[in-house]
Amino acid sequence: MRHFPGLDRSQTLLDLLKLYIYGYLNRVRSSHRLEAEAHRNIEVIWLLRHLRPDFKTIANFRRDNRSAFRPIFRQFVLLGRQWTCSAGS
Question: How far apart (Å, rounded) are the C-alpha atoms in residues 31 and 40?
């Protein structure tokens, strides 16, 4: 993983997870497209605190953490359903 000055590994991993979730929500699957979003989309720039990971860093993050994504997204969907039910009450 590429080192980002001033950040420890856990901060960088959290930022990459945020980028991956952004891609999930916006149907951006490609590491190259996520890299482009991190450079041009103001929402993503703000979300990542001006970090600009390259496509290889994003791809390595995906590969290295593949088994963790299913439970994370399952919890994310359950949280969304819970918020939807609460808003309807």
Answer: 14
How far apart CA 83 and CA 10 sit, in angstroms, is 28
Q: Which residues of 56-66 are buried (b: 16+ CB within 10 A; e: fewer)?
A: ebbbbbbeeee
> What pTM, to 2 d.p., does this model score?
0.77
**φ, ψ at 30 (rounded to 5°):** -75, 140
Instruction: Determine the Cα–Cα distance for residues 49 and 7; give it in Å rounded to an integer.
Output: 11
Residue range 2-38, pLDDT digits in tens:
666 655 777 788 999 999 999 988 999 999 999 999 9
What is the spatial distance between Cα 56 and Cα 70, in angstroms, rounded to a whole number?
21
Which amino acid is located at 1 in the chain? M
63/58 Cα distance (integer angstroms) = 9
